[in-house]
Amino acid sequence: MAFTSNTGQTRTSLAEINITPLVDVVLVLLVIFMLTAPVLQSGIEVAVPKTRTVKQITEPRMVLTIDRDQQIFLGDKPVNIHELPDRLHQAGTDPSNQVIYLRADERVPFGAFATVMDAVKQAGITKISVVTQPLDTKGIAGNSNSGQ
Fold it and tell me: What does pTM read for this prediction?
């Protein structure tokens, strides 16, 4: 394709596409997805209670979550409380040896927590670990001898 300039000269158009901006955009998107992918895996936001003794989770286990709206999630997928025992029972495994981690928001009423615990026990799972956060003890350590 040719075009004529103001001076009357005929010029051809530039037939090459500059791909540098395209590569820049793709690399920026790649970095954004790499940074946000680990955050998306933890999906459900729960404010777990704080305790003094906390054991680090070392092995991948099944995680059951109760959020502040009392919705129940198995992994990242919502589950009905009535379907929970069937979903928890894994084919080919002994439920008495199965371990489950239970994350519950600190604002969840005890009744909802007890209902979920009952459903887990109906599945035959007796090894249940409640997930908590470590308690910040900076202010407590300084006041330990204040009564003397």
Answer: 0.55
Q: What is the predicted pLDDT for the residue at 27?
A: 92
Largest CA distance in the chain: 100
Q: Is 133 left (phi over 0), alpha (psi -120 to 50) or beta?
A: beta
Residue 62: what are its φ and ψ, rounded to 5°?
-75, 130
Say yes or no to pLDDT of 131 above 60. Answer: yes
Q: At 77, which helix (H) or strand (E)?
A: strand 77-78
Q: Which domains does the chain have, with CATH numbers?
A: 50-134 (3.30.420.270)
Q: What is the mean pLDDT of the chain?
A: 76
β pairing state of 99-104 and 62-66: parallel
What 135-138 contacts at long range (C-beta under 8 Å, 24+ apart), as own/partner pairs, is 135/50, 135/51, 135/52, 136/50, 137/52
